[in-house]
Amino acid sequence: MRTEHIHQRIQRGAIIAILIVALVHFALRIDLAGSWRYDIAGAEPNVIHGVQKVMLGRELYTDPQQAPFDFVQYTPAYYFVCGGIGKALGIDAFDVRSVYELSRVLSLILNLLTALTVLLIVRERWVSRSWGWVVAALTFAAFSEHFYSRADSLYALLFALSLRQVLRALDAGTARAWALAAVLAVLCFLTKQTAVLLFLIVPLHLLLDRKWRPLIAFLGSAFVASLVGIALLLFLAPADHLWKNMVDGLKNGVSPNYLFDLFNTRSYFQLAGWHLIAVLLPIVLMRSTDPRSRFLALAMPLSVLFAVITAFKSGSQFNYFFESLVITFVAVALYSGPAVKEGSLAPPHWLRTAIILYALVFCVQRTVALRTWSGKFGSPATQYQTYSADKHVRDVLVNDLGLRDGEPVYVTYRGYLELFLNGNSLLSQKDIIEWSEDVPYDLSAFHTSMRDGSVRFVVTDAATDTIEVMDSTYTNYKPLRVVDGRHILVPSAR
Q: What whole-number distance in Å separates Cα of residue 304 and Cα of residue 274?
């Protein structure tokens, strides 16, 4: 049997295996969407909080330094899309379980659309159908938990659409194509701030290739679209509120811990191959006369560098490498999978086989990681009990103790109760405050309300006679009632 046929059989078998693993990964995602877990996505409850505010018709961005001292970290697109669908479906904003499921299912659908968009990108370049599905499976496997129920899921779709339009514009070269690419890039930025990567790579490529008219069309259209976007944001809230929420709310500080852990553990193997490709493949692609190949040759190493730099942010995780992975997947497919090759750019059979086998290993690793990670947070029965307990406490506060809309309640622990009390709960994003090296807000008004007795209830998950918040301690509260292990306290002066 010829060596070429052996490689073809190995590649065919690996592709079938990748598609089977992708189906397993999809099944795990469906199971996770129905989980009773409080947080599957890293600050997921903070996102649910914002979705609830949209569904309740409340202002999305308020002053974090005034009661109820909450903030919304991301730009508004995901909140309005998810909240708008919830309202259209008639979901009650205080039916917390349904809001969670809505966000998780929506994110899963957006993840699938993102994978489909990446498939379309490579299929438009005469890539074989099998390689197109491989790239779609790789993209779906690359989603970390941050894309399971957060603004990241909508951002990923818009990023893929923006990348597709940029590649189309490089082929068409028309001002209209570049204008559409710019508008999509701005929409992407209005969903998540890391889309600034597009505004670094695209203009730089056009500048290096001396494509002055496309450069002017892209930047000019981006400027106009940005003005419209800023105007819409200012329609939602004053500029200082927007800044405090979307800029100050992201100041977690700088830490090399994630990168140190990543590069010093076996888990880096799932990225190492793609990073090696992102460094070496541009050497080959730069020889191409196709502007799309040359764009990807620039985009790959720059996107990896951008990911490493942004991963110095405290609290960073695998999701910071998503953009670089998608760009590399597309470039690899265009290099390895086309039925029509550019002669000298065709890879040898052994290299194509090595790439497809590494892709299989990546998909398996990501799926095993998802299975392992999703089983770390307690049994479904325990998770359901936590939900039921917080719901019971809300019912007691409202129905038995007469809690009214707007009356402040401070919940000392992270749980569903803060969401059941949306509008009443003070400092709901306390986890982000705790993660920040320096608290980004003046919370003196919060401390005053805790001292003067204006907080009607404090709820804790353990018996205590002192309430500790950041560097402050309060002893002016006394126990009132215990409900399912939660302790309700009231100001002792009352």
A: 10
